[in-house]
Write a structure and sequence with these properties.
Number of domains: 2
Order of helices and strands: EHEEHEHEHHEEHHEEHEEHHHHHH
CATH topology of the largest domain: Rossmann fold
CATH class of the largest domain: Alpha Beta
Number of helices: 14
CATH superfamily of the largest domain: NAD(P)-binding Rossmann-like Domain
Radius of gyration: 20 Å
């Protein structure tokens, strides 16, 4: 019989990627989200994880072999992030029907495990890079830690296995996603081409010149499924990156060339996208109407604040995947190719011209 999965946050970048992979591998997939969006092959489970009773009601009759948690909500303070996201994790796990057979729960967090939460991002005393899983937690409140603690407590109580997955910045497809560098850069490049503005790197000299890595959403999906199906990967936390490294001064030229642009020279001065794109909503709407694009609302495609946070970091960020490699995961992606594949999908779905 086909295995059954529950994907929480199925409309997001990571949730959509794991759902598509599971369907291709013959799994029956239930997709939980606050919206009633229809995704081909996914059984929709509309629910707000902030509502414990409604979540339990929505999950009645669903007995998944594996649960993939890819959702979170952003709030104004880290204290609120901890309260809300911790409760969402608790409500989800409490709403699952108890089972006698094996079950695995995978949680997607990220490198803020090492870099700190939004309020203290990249500040204070940070672990040395490349980040390794055995470096542990920072001495600062972080909603990722709250999510993990809920996972660990429920696993001990209910007897399921778990895995935690920490990608770097994810390249993937989703509309209305809060953390979406690939689509943000695609809309920014389109706007620069339309208006004749220079395609200027928005971030820091450290990111321009330093080595970095990223995570393709489809590679992350492969890693999630691998951990669920590999006993030696159970009850472990993993970093997940593509496997290559690059400098943004090289990648910026690659992206510019894909869009037919000349990259602007970089003098070391950050030019945040939140400032550069602040007045672009009407310009984007005109482009969308003229070219028949599917989404005229720029805010549904671009998340400048998040891209600024990643590209503005004052330190070099590299990620070690030694634990996964040792246990047998061999997935690899070229990051520029991952960007180009995303841009092609955006164009095919009429999200960029």
């Amino acid at each position: 019989m086909a295995k059954t999965a529950l994907v929480a946050g199925v409309t997001g970048i990571n949730g959509n990627a794991i759902a598509r992979l599971l369907i291709n591998r013959g799994w029956k997939v239930h997709g939980l989200s606050r919206s009633r969006a229809q995704i081909e092959g996914v059984q929709p489970v509309p629910a707000d994880l902030q509502d414990r009773a409604a979540t339990a009601e929505a999950l009645k009759g669903i007995d998944p072999d594996a649960v993939f948690v890819t959702t979170w909500l952003r709030r104004e303070t880290e204290a609120e992030n901890i309260r809300v996201n911790g409760a969402m994790m608790r409500n989800l796990l409490a709403g699952l029907t108890k089972r006698d057979g094996p079950r695995h729960v995978a949680l997607v967090t990220g490198l803020k495990h090492y870099l700190g939460p939004f309020e203290a991002y990249g500040k204070g005393r940070l672990p040395q890079t490349p980040f390794r899983e055995n470096q542990g937690r920072l001495d600062v409140a972080n909603f990722y830690y709250a999510q993990e603690d809920e996972l660990f407590e429920a696993a001990e109580r209910d007897g399921f296995s778990w895995s935690v997955h920490r990608p770097h910045t994810v390249i993937g497809m989703a509309v209305g996603n809060a953390m979406n560098m690939g689509t943000t850069l695609a809309t920014y490049a389109t706007l620069c081409r339309e208006t004749g503005r220079p395609f200027a790197f928005p971030g820091s000299a450290a990111q321009w010149n330093g080595l970095t890595d990223m995570t393709d959403a489809d590679l992350l999906a492969e890693h999630l499924l691998w951990a669920a199906e590999t006993k030696s990967a159970h009850d472990e936390a993993f970093n997940v990156v593509n496997g290559d490294v690059f400098r943004w001064r090289w990648m910026w030229e690659r992206i510019a060339d894909w869009f037919g642009l000349e990259p602007a020279s970089f003098d070391g001065t950050p030019r945040p996208l939140e400032e550069q794109m602040a007045e672009d909503a009407l310009v984007w709407r005109r482009i969308a109407e003229r070219d028949g694009l599917a989404e005229p609302d720029l805010t549904q495609l671009a998340s400048p604040w998040h891209t600024d946070a990643d590209l503005g970091r004052p330190i070099e960020v590299l990620t070690d995947m030694g634990k996964s490699r040792t246990l047998g995961f061999t997935g690899y992606r070229q990051t520029d190719a991952a960007f180009f594949a995303l841009f092609e999908r955006l164009r095919a779905q009429r999200l960029i011209p």
